[in-house]
Amino acid sequence: MNVVNELRVRIRKDTGRNERALIEVSVHPFIVRYKEAFLEDNILYVAMDFCSKGDLSKYIKRYKKTNTLIPERKIKRWLLQIITAIKFMHDRKLIHRDLKCNNIFLDDEERAKVGDFGLAKIFENTEQTNTLCGTIGYMAPEICRNVAYSFPADIWSLGVILYELMSLRHPFKSEHSNMLSTAQKICEEEVCAVGRQNGKNIQKNGSNMEQIWRKSGANVAQCGDNVAPKL
């Protein structure tokens, strides 16, 4: 059960329409199933499928403790699953806007499932928005600059997720960074080298993803064309 303060919900004028759309879009093997939502005492409760293996951020922390890298085969599998889920969303005019390791959950079989659609938006007549939202460190440069953005913003976030899985660290944030310095690094595209020693294919995919980052105009189909065939 996911609990969200009503204040966050009130910001969204189209909550009812989005709820119906989320129930529809969540019927996918790599998206957390969104079942129902109800309001009680100014709190919105969202019923979703339980993912017993936690999320990718916990997985990364576990590998950090043992000072070992996540096996390449796991990263390949998750990447393809996430790309498939994003394509499914984008084909239905839904942009997630808060993709990050904390929002990629793992089920009993460790399949990746995209979750937490609290900031998702449905595009209708327009294909761009300029609402400042998301999680700093995963926001695309155009969001940090407060200019219009669209579906490619999700692809940027996917690139950050891939970087973290490969290197066990964030490409823009450090222990001493704050929100402002992180946003500045994103806008200036100061990405550190991954430095992964094993897995030539995954390194090559990382380079392709970095090119997608720098363009920040690719769609999920282009992302799949650049990455998936090589996995």
Unreliable segments (pLDDT under 50, ≥5 consecutive)?
Answer: 3-14
Strand and helix order:
EHHEEHHEEEEHHHHH
Strand order of the biggest β-sheet: 1-3-2
CATH topology (fold) name? Transferase(Phosphotransferase), domain 1
Number of structurally distinct domains: 1
CA gyration radius, whole angstroms: 17 Å
CATH superfamily: Transferase(Phosphotransferase) domain 1
Mean pLDDT: 76
Beta-strand percentage range = 5-15%
Shape: globular
Largest sheet: 3 strands, antiparallel
Q: Class, according to the CATH hierarchy?
A: Mainly Alpha
Count helical runs. Answer: 9
Distance between the termini: 34 Å
Number of strands: 7
Structural class call reads alpha+beta
Helix content: 40-55%
CATH architecture, by name, is: Orthogonal Bundle
Describe this structure in words.
It is built from 9 helices and 7 strands, in the order E-H-H-E-E-H-H-E-E-E-E-H-H-H-H-H. It has 231 residues and is of the alpha+beta class. The strands form 3 sheets. It has a 3-stranded antiparallel beta sheet. The chain has a two-stranded antiparallel sheet with strand order 4-7. Strands 5-6 form a two-stranded antiparallel ribbon. Strand 5 (104-106) and strand 6 form a beta hairpin. Helix 4 packs antiparallel against helix 9 (220-227) and helix 6 packs antiparallel against helix 8 (200-215).
Tell me the layout of helices and strands:
Elements: E1 2-5, H1 6-10, H2 15-25, E2 34-40, E3 43-48, H3 56-66, H4 72-91, E4 94-95, E5 104-106, E6 112-114, E7 121-122, H5 141-144, H6 152-167, H7 179-188, H8 200-215, H9 220-227
Antiparallel strand pairs: 1-3, 2-3, 4-7, 5-6
Keywords: ATP-binding, Kinase, Nucleotide-binding, Serine/threonine-protein kinase, Transferase
Domain Protein kinase: 1-231
GO molecular function: ATP binding; protein serine/threonine kinase activity
